[in-house]
Amino acid sequence: MIHIEWSSRAEEDFNSIFDYIAEENPAAAVRQTDLILESVQQLRRFAESGMRSIIRRNRKLAVPRTPYAIYYRFKHERIELTAIRHGAQRPLKRL
Known about the structure:
Blueprint: E1 3-6, H1 8-24, H2 26-45, E2 51-52, E3 59-62, E4 68-75, E5 78-86
Parallel strand pairs: 1-5
Antiparallel strand pairs: 2-3, 3-4, 4-5
Helix pairs in contact: 1-2
């Protein structure tokens, strides 16, 4: 089975997303973060489903029904989540 590791940046991004949305709508925060977690689990089955990112060695998976994308690296049986970004945020140049 593929092992998924969260970088500290990806964990911070995830928690920030929840906190930001929860200020206005806690139920929406749960829905959005659940959709992100579903996409993370999808990577266990389809590790190369994300498109190649402009960031070296990263792939980018759009999270359906959200404005978020998961950036990750896949090597052998390991996926490292490197960041989670909102589409309106400045594009990442490097990780």
